[in-house]
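Hi all, posting the design record for the shared folder.

TITLE: backbone redesign
STEP: 1 of 1
STRUCTURE INPUT:
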């Protein structure tokens, strides 16, 4: 048992090990996450800064295939819902909690328990924390009540339902395009022929 497995959900550890990345960049993120999991005392703690810690994101879509984004107050960017993992919390539960808290969709959020995507991204220094990496585990969720969203002003400047093409433009970067393509594929799979 690695040090971090003492603190964490065995199901997540197995799921991460079995995950099959899409392309070279995600494969590198996957390998780095496995290494962090094996080497760090508590890679899920938000105070683990070298090289960083696990976080969880929740990509929420509605019945029309639109994606919910929030304009992150601190980072000043359009992003999916997500954030830090609480002590003893699995990434899936963290993604669900963050998705509900940041969107206001506390009673109508159905999250898929499969990992959607993996990404490592740099977070600038701020709030007394040094620059560090977020080892982000990403999940997909659905809602049938898109009109029930409610902004959390402590976290977001704005919330917006956008098409997947618009989301790719707002978020920018190859990692966002990779996730958008995965979501498009899953929507096609779930649509009746």
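Okay, here is what came back for every position:
SEQUENCE:
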């Amino acid at each position: 048992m690695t040090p971090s497995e003492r603190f964490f959900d065995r199901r997540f550890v197995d799921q991460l090990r079995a995950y099959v990345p899409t392309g070279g960049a995600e494969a590198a993120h996957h390998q780095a996450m496995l290494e962090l999991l094996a080497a760090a005392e508590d890679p899920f703690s938000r105070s683990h800064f070298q090289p960083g810690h696990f976080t969880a994101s929740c990509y929420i879509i509605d019945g029309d295939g639109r994606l919910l984004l929030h304009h992150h107050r601190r980072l000043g960017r359009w992003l999916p819902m997500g954030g830090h993992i609480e002590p003893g919390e699995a990434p899936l539960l963290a993604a669900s909690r963050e998705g509900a808290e940041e969107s206001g969709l506390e009673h109508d959020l159905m999250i898929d328990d499969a990992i959607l995507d993996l990404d490592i991204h740099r977070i600038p220094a701020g709030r007394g924390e040094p620059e560090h990496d977020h080892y982000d585990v990403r999940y997909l969720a659905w809602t049938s009540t898109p009109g029930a969203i409610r902004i959390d002003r402590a976290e977001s400047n704005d919330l917006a339902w956008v098409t997947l093409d618009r989301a790719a433009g707002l978020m920018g970067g190859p990692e966002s395009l990779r996730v958008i393509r995965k979501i498009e594929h899953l929507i096609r799979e779930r649509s009746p022929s």
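COMMENT: Strands lie at 52-61, 67-72, 78-79, 81-84, 110-111, 117-123, 132-142, 156-162.
Let me know if anyone wants the other runs.
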